[in-house]
Amino acid sequence: MTVRYPWPTFTAPLRCRLTDVRLDGRPLPADLIDDGHYRVRLDGMSTWESFECEVVVTTDESMPAGVDRVTGYVMVASSATNTRLPFPLRAEGNSLIGRIIVARGAVAGGFTVAAEVGGEVAGRRRVVGASDPWTVVLDRRDAPVPPGAPPFVMSWEDFTSPGAPAAARQTPDALAFMDVTGEPRLWLNSGVPGLQALLDNNHAKLERRRLRDILSTTIARNATSALFRAAAAEVVAYGDEPPQPPTTALYRQVCQAVADQMIGIGGVEELYEQLVAQRDDPLGNADLWRRIDAAVDTLTGSLDALTTASQEVSHG
Question: What would the pLDDT profile of 63-101 be if each residue is shown by its tens digit?
Fold first, then answer.
């Protein structure tokens, strides 16, 4: 999602490169730095105390008109520890360059590294440009999942069998059940005749394809909704401090994905704030969850599947 501001900004993300990446002063192997996906993998590294690198920021665009007193900085953020560490950048030719040093004890699970440029616009300090964030993965469980793979375990089980979870056995006719009592797991009901064969059919055509798409996106929607509700329960605030994000990595990923699809939300931090603020406001809470449900519909493609099927049938 690209945030649009009502003041002059760069039209495209700034280019951000991490160079001379080191752990405890030793160069990091090049195969752990993925420039194409803005990712650094540290989950296989042994104990270390400090991460450091040089950050080089460039752009082909001219400075937006009306922006004065420009400064650049890098923001290191770890949601698991609620850490935000700014590092200044200095101008060198057509680039902004700086060095960051992150102590191991200040971050957990993973952290992001993103460059931002600020300036004075009509007498007020504003963010006028930002880069796509780099992700530094510390824990394998926080690593991005392969494209197309679900971010949770899926298992088939007859919901009438003793091996099914107790909650699934209480609804033996349900298509699926998302269990969030431990490691999130989506249970699919093999006791529903033909369900597994239909969902696994990659060559379905006509009515079978339409039904497969509707069922699969409906299951995905319900699973995502269950994960988000579990995540929302973990969002807490203490006094006047900013809300604490969920402690579970998957829950943070779900919140970020939902926030990216929500209208009127500037980022996941604002979503956390609204989740906390609206809990004691029935009307505001209902409106917030309506927008969350709409974002989940978009995220999982369930609305698109229903719309496509309806259009195909009406024109068939």
Answer: 888 888 888 999 998 877 878 899 999 988 889 999 999
Q: How many domains does the chain have?
A: 2
* Angle, CA of 308, 310 and 311, to the nearest 5°: 65
When mean pLDDT is compared across 18-27, 127-136, 157-166, 197-206, the lowest value belongs to: 197-206
Instruction: Please state the φ and ψ torsions of residue 240, each to the nearest 5 degrees.
Output: -95, 5
Give yes or no: residues 27 and 110 share one domain. Answer: yes
Which residues face 187 on adjacent strands? 155, 177
What's the token pair of residue 161?
């069998």
CA atoms of 148 and 164, how far apart (whole Å)? 26
Bridge-based pairing of strands 124-130 and 83-92 is unpaired
What phi and psi values does residue 300 have, to the nearest 5 degrees? -90, -10
Q: Are residues 178 and 115 in the same domain?
A: no
pTM exceeds 0.70: no
CA nearest to 191, candidates 153, 160, 155: 160
Mapped onto helix, strand or coil, the DSSP state of residue 194 is: coil
Taking 50 as the threshold, does the pLDDT of residue 177 lie above it?
Answer: yes
What is the C-alpha R_g of the chain?
Answer: 23
Residue 143 has pLDDT above 50, yes or no: no
**Helical residues (DSSP H) of the chain, grouped into ranges:** 166-169, 195-199, 206-234, 249-261, 268-277, 282-300, 302-314
Closest by CA to 192, choosing from 179, 207, 173, is 173
Mind listing the pLDDT tens digit for each residue in 204-218?
677 788 888 888 888
CATH of the domain at 29: 2.60.40
| Contact (CB, 8 A) for 242 and 273 | yes
Which helix (H) or strand (E) is 120 found in, with range?
A: strand 110-121
- More confident site: 189 or 305: 189
Query: 132 is written with which tokens?
Result: 């796509």
